[in-house]
Amino acid sequence: MMTHSTTTSTAGPAPIPAATDADRGAVRQLLYTNTDRVVDGARAGGWQILARSPTLDDATASRLLALVEPRLNPVAPLSGFPTPEEVGSAARRLAQVPTADGTVLVHTAPAGADATGRPNTMTHIAVLADEKRPAVCTADLWRSPGWRVPFGPDEVRATRMPAAGEIIPGRNVSDDSVADFMAESGRAAVLVALADLLGDVLARRADAPADKTTTVLLGTDSTDEAALWVGALQRTCAPCTGRRLGFSTLERVGSARDIESLMASGVDLACVPRRDLEALSARRGVVVVDPQAPPTLPPATAWARLVAGMTTDLGAWVAGVEVVREVLDRLSDHRDLTPGWPLAMAEACDPGVLTGSDRGEGPVDEAADHELVACQPRAVVDDDYLVAVVGDRVLGSTRTDPAYWYDKLSALPERAPAEGVVTGLARKYVETAVRAPRWLLEGARRCDRRAADRLSSWSGSEEGRRALGPALETAVDTVSHDRRDTAVLVMVDRLTRDGVVLPRARTDELLLPAARALAADQDPTGLRERVVRLDLARRCRARLARLVEQVLREEPARDRAIPWMSHDAVAWLGHGAMREGLTGLTAQIALTDLVDDPDAAKAGRAVEALNGVTGSFEIRADAARALAAHATVDLLRTRPQGWRNAWDVLAPALLADPRSPTSAGICRELLAGRAHPEASMGRAVYTRFSVPTAVSLVVLVHHAPLMTRSSVDAAVTYASNVLVAVGVLGADAALAASPTVAAARSKALAVLTLVVWNGRPVRLPGHERTWGAAVQELDAHLDRDPGLLAAPGETGAGRLLARAVDRLYWCDHNTEIPEELFASVRRELSEVRGAEERSSAALGGRDETVRAIVRAWYVYLGPQWGRALRDELVSAMAQAPDADRWLDGCVLPADPARGASGLRRRLFGGHRAAGRERST
Fold first, then answer.
1. What is the rounded average pLDDT of the residues 1-10?
2. pLDDT, tens digit, for every residue of 648-658?
3. Which of 441, 532, 759, 914 has the fewest CB atoms within 10 Å, measured from its CB?
């Protein structure tokens, strides 16, 4: 039916005849056939649009032509010379296709032979208006006198479109003819099966266009019988609903291609000659219904069960049709009706009309109740009588099973109005649920989103708020006889899952014992263990999480260290709590995660969480270790004031990244807060420091330009304080092992060595033996890490280095002092010797260390700045003969990127030591 084949005229498009005034009404029409005409003196022949309504644009006409199948291919075609009676009763096809352009009727009738002798048909298309409450079933238009059915080329050529009002019901499909048709034995089961198969797609099309999922093939003996089947089905629903059914009174399925074409079409119900069914094989998506072998399965859908009640006998059928019309007459709009609603409303208005009994029991009554809930037409609210009938029917039951009322809530459509039935069903459900202990404590029962939405909405209404207080107390009393101490918690969870919004204050009071058990560090009664074994819904857990947060805030940490909550409790509450702004609980979760599987991302979340904790607290030792190993100083820049053992985390982080500007900022703030600003470290030597001050100073020395920008007094004082700090940290094995501490110690010792070579005695703090090994290691440390001497951006020689290098030169050349410089050089060297004698023994005889310092500084500066350093040093030794050659050959490495080799140090070291000894 859905294929389209045409022969295009070479004479160009034929003009469209003018439409009559009736065509300007609601129905738009189009005639399509094979004809030849003379237009403006030229002959136009072939398949073409013979006429169309002026309101039918080209794009719409093109879409309608895609619905045309000109071939009829009936089982018994007309003879070569049929009588008028035979033409009038010939097989035709009436197809109905719901489209975006509206409901389209495609009527195709035999038109004899065309001018060339080939079989011809006339297709008459009508696009129905979108009516709110159409009164006529489209199947009743079968053999309407308005359809154009010319026969022979002359009649075809002379055919004109009818007025829209001419397409009226014919005589073949009417209330009487359909009633007589349904009175035949076996036809009731067939109609019930059709309702079962087609009800779902028709119901879905009540809200929006919906694609079919099944193509139903109905075997018939004639197209007249096919029209009666469609007419019968349409009388069991609203005519508006019937227009959403795609049907055809004649389709052939002799080949696989025919089946595929039909499945791809908009036809839901295809009537096919019964003999076509004989060779048909089973196919997915296709269901065959043969009236000669009526289905025996009981009806499965509500509409089908209602149709079964209507077809029990002729009286029920006639009464059902009559009451359905009376119901529909009361509604101003039928467009949102489901197929079964009119019959359900008919049974509600006239109990027993479909069942023969007003007892309100049985499958038909259940189906009626279901439809009255599942469909909530907008127009019903305007009719007080229908509103009252629905309310009495749906809410009048005395059933005490909450599942019964929950199923009805679940069946409510999305667009159901919030008042009336919806409110009543919510109230009925809550009233029965709170008195049913098994329902309240049942573990695995279905939860429906639509029901939850309705219950939530009702809970927020004034009626709901009034009712839920007493209802909750009833529920508490109902479950109070259960021996489990988690029964109340389970009850709250089940009602919350259902969508009921319980009174907050009372619910919190009921949940508080469970929250205290979850928040505790011990579980003496075992309640926590029993709670975490429960499978509670997310909403209930979220409520418990908020209460746990409340408990954590009300009960300060005191002697407990975060995280103290059990691993099971944290895992059970879930990470959703971290998104709810629950700061105390978030800290417990984040630190537990960090301890379980430490990494930088978890450390970041843990620090962020701790910043939300108020009051005084500590974190657990294993958490502190994990945080210290993965938290950066940038993360720790901001810390809560009450974090008592923050230094256990901050100290390792600072020592891990001493050159970070953030580290320097933190340490300067800490020193200032302890009344020891960094500047004071260059004015007085302290005898002891706290660990935080010691760490701060060890970090800050990496930012102190002691080599070039400090006076001798400031340099010796600052460096001495650094060694005091290093001594303090020596008491902590973990801190003392930090490379940052070693680098700070080496820098301080290097600076103090230069101070001695500048003629200033230095006494190292603490015991002499404390520094001996460090001084011995200094040269090697400088070779490994030349940059340890420099502050960020520090360049040049500076006074300390330049004067020490000058004196080192004369030590190397003590037997080659020019006569005119002899006295001054001897004074310089004596000053160094005197300073060494008055200094700590570890700093004596360190000429090779001075050489290592110069070399390290040169390597640190690199090629560009290293060359500038050389020139500056040569300039400072203006009176020294061949100073540049001495620097290049005896002090500076050939490659600034590399330090001196150990062999070179050994070779030159022995010579210089001997030379210096001779000079004294």
1. 35
2. 999 999 999 99
3. 914
